[in-house]
Amino acid sequence: MTVSYTLEVANARFGGFSKLLFRWKGSIYRLLYKELLVFCGVYLFFSVLYRFMLTPKQQDVFERIALYCDQFTNTSFIPVLFVLGFYVTMAFNRWWGQYTSFPLPDNLMMVVSGNVHGADERGRLLRRTLMRYANLSSVLILRSISTRVLKRFPTLEHVVEAGFMTTTELKLFESLHSDFNKYWMPLTWFSNLASRAREEGRVRDDIALRLLMDELNNYRAKCSLLFHYDWISIPLVYTQVVTIAVYSYFAFCVIGRQFLNPLKGYKDHKLDMYVPVFTLLQFFFYAGWLKVGELIINPFGEDDDDFETNQLIDRNIQVSMLAVDDMYQNLAPIVKDKLWAQRYFSIPYTLSTATETLKPPFKGSTFDMRMSAEDLEYHPPIDASGNKQCLHFKSSLSDGLDRLLQRGKGILQGRSLPSLVDISSHLNEEDDNGAPLKNNINAMNHKEQEKAFIEVIVEQNL
User: Fold this and answer.
1) Are 212 and 203 in contact (CB under 8 A)?
2) Would you say the pTM of this structure is higher than 0.85?
């Protein structure tokens, strides 16, 4: 059964995860203890051999081999971390993809319940048969990939006995010869039966039939994806590379991490601790990581954390039949809700959650942001042509200057009052024909005056 500890880690607290370390079922200890005992036994054998059974000359040879192996394991000759980390990441993504591909009938049963009408026995029979076909298809595909489901339904007669298939349907199923898996046959029956329900008027329009077919195809796609996950595995060569890398690494560690005679003055061998604590921890981490990849690469087995496929089958058939049969047109009386007459209301809290009412509601991360007076000052935007937006001038040029000083302070930032006077005098200059420019400005219409004045301001600022 899947080991769940979600409730125990709902709140982060002191020692929250450490309490999980003492569990046995579903733990890494249960998964790894045999390999750890083998490693310790082999290490102990070489330690006893070196200390008590070899001659001094043989000990010298063993020590040279140990130093060479230790140098080999402490370098990157074997990229254990790289190949192992990438492999486990790939296996986890595959594991999650298989979980999300599990065919659940929830969407399909809602569509069947809402679009296959008829409170009589015929309507009820149509709805139940449609959902039975859908569940039968998932049972057939799970028999092909899950050892738990195959042990529960070792033959198709067991499927008939469980009520997923009738004897007549079994004969039709076996009469169709195909060299490939026939999990898709019940979904074809579903499609044909839905078309017949449309002809009988139980499905009232083609839009409802199309909705049924769309949900059926989504359900079929998940069944097909599970089949392909089982068919196409992670390439065997990569699994072999990872396994050989980890096992060969610790095979060298068995000799290379031996404690040598400290009296001989070998580098990094000044203590004789007998038990290689850090090597054992390293084995626990690396080999445990490899076992995790082995565990999740196929979650349809019988490990502690594999998917509960049999319980999912039970849940799916029960829920789908309740939705299309007992729950069909089974509505509670429509009445006014308790808060009908209240325009502004709040939902009550229990005593243990009443303190949450004191917290102000979240309105956005910038809602309480403080801004300076300069940030609040208005700046005219730029229009699409790249010019400054036209400001609304009054009839006279002096009024326009006053308004520009008030609303265009950002544009004229750094300009003094004499600069404005220079601009005003520039507007009073004569054009090429000797005509006063101010008169020309007075002759302009309102927008032309704004544009000309802005152009002079931009020129002066540049």
Assistant:
1) yes
2) no
